[in-house]
Amino acid sequence: MNKIKGYRNMLNETQLDWARMLNISRASFNKKESGAVPFNDYEKKKIKSHINSVLEAQGERSVTIDELFFS
C-alpha cells in the first residue's frame, strides 16, 4: 500500500496515529500498510475520510477509494 504510506507521510502522521484512528494495533496497521493483510471496507472508508478532511481543509482535491486502493 505505497499510496497509503505516501499519504500518511504527507500528512506527517505515524503508523501509531493511524492504528489508533482505526482502533487496531500498530503491528496490525503495519501489516496492512505493507500489503501483507488487506484493509477491510470500514478501514478503507475511514482512511479516505481522514485524508479528504485534511485535503479539503487545504483546498486540495479529494481522493476516492479507487485512487487509494485500486489504481
Helical residue percent band: 55-70%
What composes the largest sheet?
Answer: none
Rg from alpha-carbon coordinates: 11 Å
Strand percent estimate: under 5%
Q: How many strands appear in the DSSP assignment?
A: 0
The averaged pLDDT comes out at 95
H/E order of the elements?
Answer: HHHHH
Structural description of this entry:
The chain has 71 residues and is mainly α. The protein contains 5 helices and no strands. It has helices at 2-10, 15-22, 26-33, 41-57, 65-69. Helix 2 crosses helix 3 (26-33). The chain is globular, with a radius of gyration of 11 Å. The termini are close together.
How does the SSE layout of this entry go?
Layout: H1 2-10, H2 15-22, H3 26-33, H4 41-57, H5 65-69
Helix pairs in contact: 2-3
Give a quick summary of the entry:
By secondary structure, the protein is mainly α.
